[in-house]
Amino acid sequence: MRIPKSALQLSIFALVIVLIVSLHNYTLPYLRLGAAKVGGFEETVLDSSTPSPSQGDSNLEKPFEADQFGLEGQRTRFQPGIPKVPGSDYSRVMVIPRTKDEDIGWIAEELPGLEISVYVVDEPNAPLHPPKNKGHEVMVYLSYIIDHYDNLPDIIVFMHAHRWTYHNNELLGADASQMIQRLSNEHVIREGFVNMRCNWAPGCPKWLFFNSTEELMSKQEESYLAKSWSELFPLEPFPPYLAQPCCAQFAVSSERIYSIPRSRFAFYRDWMIKTPLTDYVSGRIMEYSWQYIFTGKGAMCPAEHLCYCDAFGICFGGSTQYEHFVQLEDRKKEFESDLEKWKEADQLFRNSSADRTPDEISNSTAPDQKQQEHLQEQIGMIEKEREVLKKRAMARGDDPRLRAEECGRTWTEGDGF
Ligand SMILES: *[C@@H]1O[C@H](CO)[C@@H](O)[C@H](O)[C@H]1NC(C)=O
Ligand SMILES: *[C@@H]1O[C@H](CO)[C@@H](O)[C@H](O)[C@H]1NC(C)=O
Ligand SMILES: *[C@@H]1O[C@H](CO)[C@@H](O)[C@H](O)[C@H]1NC(C)=O
Fold it and tell me: Which intervals of the chain are annotated as region Disordered (predicted)?
């Protein structure tokens, strides 16, 4: 049978097209993005998405599988987890990045028995270390997930090496040890991803926008966000904005991690290693992307009172009561500032008295001593009231029924937290 020449040409042409398309099936989105959005950065992105033979990557055996990097298809949809029966144990590990010089002795002292996984960022000979000291804690968090993916505990708490810091929870003495101790396993299992900080500022309710072009000192990373997003989540549209309480300390259930393929975490880490962005900027971008990675939500700002109640068992009874507690702190700060001013005025008076004539002194007025006593008294009263309220809130939080009630969860007799 004779095949017409034109039909033969056509089928060869079609075959070539099919070949090209299938070969580029995976890299195509990147090429498109590289040209359209991320201009100038496509080489780096291609590097990470197309394994080269010299890397000896095991992915090579199936280089054209659609979900090779777990980037295709629908974003993982959030499914609340189901806690174990009340009283069950949960395995936990705390993942900590540290430098050679950082002291983490507080963990063994305060949290004996807690399993920890410590990555030394600036010591390539340490048993656990990230492939590159870049991106602050991000490189370590991702490395832990990649290294331990096959054997994760129920709950992984990603924390910094320091015990006290301004960005720890104020109501828990800014103390990481208290935060770990009070963290509800059940809450983490239900939510899948829990920011360890309840206080909104900084980071909530809206933090990073995708339309920023100006480099702000306070949010240096914002102007790089749109481009980075296109590289990190190439098939996903921008959410309206990114927001979550600051500073990249959070707990995740292994169930939530397992809803995402390991290869996707490897892809994020690869981006981290290869991006020309600085350590600081790349770290910050990921800091505000974790909630998106684990829950698919751009913004995750749970009401502070609900966070304190369900995650840490400090339940004031509702938002009004919590607000009252917060306002007490604000008032205390005002009194403290007044007291500071009073002390300054008093000091000034004393200083200047030293080189004045008795006449001058008698003419000027010393700050009123009563005023100082009044301020100190007010501060003391507020401190006492706050202490009482906090104790009551902790007692309320110890009751699983009250905790569920305040957080709007259904609860039946016999249920745990
Ligand atoms: C970016 O978008 C937000 C919200 O849509 C808007 O409030 C803001 O003014 C925009 N900023 C710039 C620089 O266009
Ligand atoms: C008062 O004098 C002390 C000691 O000379 C000095 O340190 C302090 O700053 C002065 N305070 C004021 C308010 O002038
Ligand atoms: C003391 O105060 C009086 C009345 O205010 C004023 O006339 C006098 O000049 C002042 N004396 C000094 C030394 O400042």
Answer: 353-378
Q: How close is the Cα of 394 to the center of ligand 3, in Å?
A: 59
CA of 33 to the centre of ligand 1 (A): 23
Q: What is the rounded average pLDDT for all residues in the chain?
A: 85
Separation of alpha carbons 316 and 397, rounded Å: 8
Residue 380 Cα to ligand 2 middle (Å): 27
- Residue to substitute in 353, 362, 363, 364 for testing ligand 3 pocket (most ligand atoms within 8 angstroms of CB): 363
Residue 15: its pLDDT value, please? 54
The helix/strand count (H/E) of the chain reads as 18, 5
Ligand nearest to the CA of 209: 1
Q: How far is the CA of 364 from the centre of ligand 3 (A)?
A: 9
Q: Is 252 left (phi over 0), alpha (psi -120 to 50) or beta?
A: beta
- Please list the ranges in the chain whose pLDDT falls under 50: 1, 19-21, 23-74
- Ligand 3 atom at minimum distance from 357 CA: 13
Which position has the token pair 């056509």? 10
pLDDT on residue 351: 81
pLDDT per residue as tens digits for the range 145-183: 999 999 999 999 999 999 999 999 989 999 999 999 999
Which residue pairs from 264-267 have beta carbons closer than 8 angstroms and sit at least 24 positions apart in sequence?
264/69, 264/70, 264/71, 265/142, 265/145, 265/146, 265/149, 266/69, 266/142, 266/146, 267/48, 267/49, 267/69, 267/70, 267/71
- Closest residue by Cα to atom 12, ligand 2, is 348
Model pLDDT, residue 10: 59
- CB of 351 shorter than 6 A to ligand 2: yes
Q: How many CB atoms lie within 10 A of CB 360?
A: 11
Alpha carbons within 13 A on the beta-carbon side of 327: 6
Protein residue with least CA distance to atom 13, ligand 2: 348
**Ligand 3 nearest atom to the CA of residue 363, by list position:** 1
For 252, the enclosing helix (H) or strand (E) is strand 250-253
pLDDT at 1 (0 to 100): 47
- In the three-class reduction of DSSP (H, G, I as helix; E, B as strand; rest coil), residue 93 is classed as strand
Q: Residues 143-181, buried b or exposed e (16+ Cβ, 10 A)?
A: bbbbebbeebebbbbbbbbbbeeebbbebbebbbbbbbe
How far away, in angstroms, is 351 Cα from ligand 2 center?
A: 6
